[in-house]
Amino acid sequence: MIDHIYKVYCYWRTHGTATLRQLIFRKLAYKFRRPTDQFQHPTEQFLDSKPDHNRAIDVAQISHARFQAVTPLRTYFLPESQTRRVNIVTDSISSGSLFGGVGTALIFAALLANKLNAQLRIITRTERAKPENVDHVLLLYGIKLEHEVQFKFAAFYDQKYELDIVKDDLFITTSWWTTAATLPSVPNDKIIYLLQEDERMFYPFGDDRLRCETILRNRNIRFLINTKLLFDYLVHDGFDNIAAQGMWFEPAFPVQVFHPGAKDQGGKRKFFFYARPNNLRNLFYLGIEVIEQAIVQQVLDLEHWEIFLIGKDIPTVTFNDGYTPIKCENFSWSEYAELVGTVDLGLSLMYTPHPSYPPLDLVASGAVVVTNRFANKRDLSDYSANLICADLDHNALVDALRQAVAIAMDSRVREQNYRNNGLLTDWQQALDGIIQQLSGEA
Amino acid sequence: MFASNIPEVPYSDPWIAPLHERIKTLARGKRRVAYFYETANNSTFRYRAYNMVQVLNDDKNRDVSASYFFLNDLYRMDEIAEYADLLVICRSGYSHRINQLITRFRTQRKRVLFDIDDFVFNTSYAHLIISTLGQDTDQPEIWDYWFAYISRMGETLRLCDGAITTNDYLAARITEFSGLPVNVVPNFINKEQLNLSEMLFRSKEVSGFSRDNKICLGYFSGSPSHNLDYAIITSALEGVLENDPRIELMVVGYIEAGPELSRFGRRIKRQPFHDYVNLQRLVGSVEFNLMPLQVNDFTNCKSDLKYFEAAIAGTLSIASPSSTYAATIRDGENGYIAQAHQWASVIQRAIENIDTYPDMAATAYADVRLKYAWFNQRESILQALGME
What we know:
Order of helices and strands of chain A: HHHEEHEHEEEHEHEHHEEHEEHEHEEHHH
Strand order of the largest sheet of chain A: 4-3-2-6-7-8-9
Strand content of chain A: 15-25%
Radius of gyration of chain B: 22 Å
CATH architecture of the largest domain in chain B: 3-Layer(aba) Sandwich
Shape of chain A: globular
Number of helices of chain A: 15
Largest sheet of chain A: 7 strands, parallel
CATH class of the largest domain in chain B: Alpha Beta
Number of helices of chain B: 15
Strand content of chain B: 5-15%
Largest interface: A-B, 29 and 29 residues
Shape of chain B: globular
Oligomer: heterodimer
Order of helices and strands of chain B: HEHEHEHEHHEHEHEHEEHEHEHEHHH
Structural class of chain A: alpha/beta
Number of domains of chain B: 2
CATH topology of the largest domain in chain B: Rossmann fold
Structural class of chain B: alpha/beta
Distance between the termini of chain A: 56 Å
Number of strands of chain A: 15
């Protein structure tokens, strides 16, 4: 039993909560659904059986078991349809995963569907969709769908679901694995891979990374890259297919969502740290060490600053002489946006070329933020002079925090920087050129 | 929930009559229409043959008469063909008997029309239909059944001189497939249904739409093939039931409320399938009639009968924006339209607007009475039959 728990723990450490949850769902699904499956896939038989190391297992079964997330979508052609469709293929649109990258995919797909006079279909692979989550996002961003939306749960372990497609259907994929699952099932020139990170960096050098890179080098699909910075990085790294078939956009931060909120007059100032210990690229451990150092060096004076750790799976941390920061987890999007509007200073790290959303959410809401440099991510002042980029070492980050505290305390400079932000505030405007181009080609 | 003092009415199928009487009814007018359906039932037969015959025979001058016939009646096929000037075959698949029946009329240079209320005649869409209905695609019998059913329907359609259907969207699909001229006669409310419904509406009106302190949402299903439609609203229902203790759900017909809602115990009410007249009492008792539909080329062809049968009993509907519902329901005026992601918020809005209920229900009732009451259908039926 202890061994079993330890194995689960190791799996969780390696693959993260979402993947562990998928595994549990899959196991439960096998347990409860199999009796109705008349034609069980051989891999399911393999997965479902007790481990037997003497049993012969063919290569296809082993690969399928290891890379279930790329199980091809089950599709069938219809000769024609009265309504055209824009499809999103994503893992989940639960409230926990809908914002950030998935929210961007939804906004893009909704605007594209409206432009093409098409229906939106949301295909999820690990969790059945909660349609009201989509309603929440679209309402927040003021987007009204012209046509009915469809939700389809296309679980990779399910033998029953099917997706009808017609030749004009477009598919927006949201990760290398959803792209890999879509490639065998739809005409490849109808796939737009919305790439919002150098996804190779999710993995150590190994099979996952290799498969990811293979998808990123695909020449038959189109790429849409979130930020020019990430686009330039990938092109510089030799992705000539992305140089040839890629487009980029800068994200938008609408004022109705991101804006300075009412500050607690006379209260302590708020310091925000984006704390996700299980998302390694967010450098949780470096971050808390830097905060500790900043407290010791009186860069952050706890008499005047209150520290908030915002994220997921955050341990109970104490700093320096026993100060316990406030943990904020499982926030709804409106709670998150409300809190961000009251923040004065933030530290948000991302060990990749992508600027990522939290630093931009913060400067869009009037805060001053420190983030890190990486490759061509050297200077983000075009987004905002309140966004300071530092090298990835303790001293450089503490120095940057010192500089950021000074700006945060100087309401005139901070306000002026905020007013001169270079961030876009309208998604329609942010994506207009891309959507025009796609609707012209489509 | 609305309290009703209208008692249940004794019910027996009103279309049961011996063949000789039906032939006599056919023969009494100057211009005569024979409707054919394989065997009587409460759904397509009622809407597309029985109701049409009821309207056509409500003619004091006996200018037009009509009657309906079934497969078992065809041993007197020659008499039927002799008396009738026109044959309408309602949703019947090809067989030797159907061909013989059509041939009888054709040889006498009499016209034959095909009446169909569903997109089930083009096998290119068989897969979509099977999938939409949630059928088990791993069963070869399912494929055999649906391909046979649909192609037989298409073949009968192609043998006819024209078609009649329930809405413009389906009419366009029929023309695409067959090239035949198509007329639209909507489904409508017959005499028996209207009589009870009007009593229900008046009783609500007289009481000022008085209700208990609960708000009941109703899902009414005439067949077990709507599980995937119902699934559209399950998550929204969970949220609404969780947030508002006044909310109850009534699930009627061949469908289960689902395991997700079992935790709400007695707030989920289950009712068996009812005859179509007394069903109006149940429909009239709930505040909101929920009509979720997966939207695709198959479901866009569905009629709006669930909407008008609720409205005539003084009940407001919340519907998916399928082709017919979107054309009939003016959101916030005579009902509500909810896209698949909006069900929770639209139900919430409808509840918040409960004070406007009597006005909206009166608007919907008046619209429906004008457009869907049996006594306003004669002209469009005659036009579709080419007898105007």
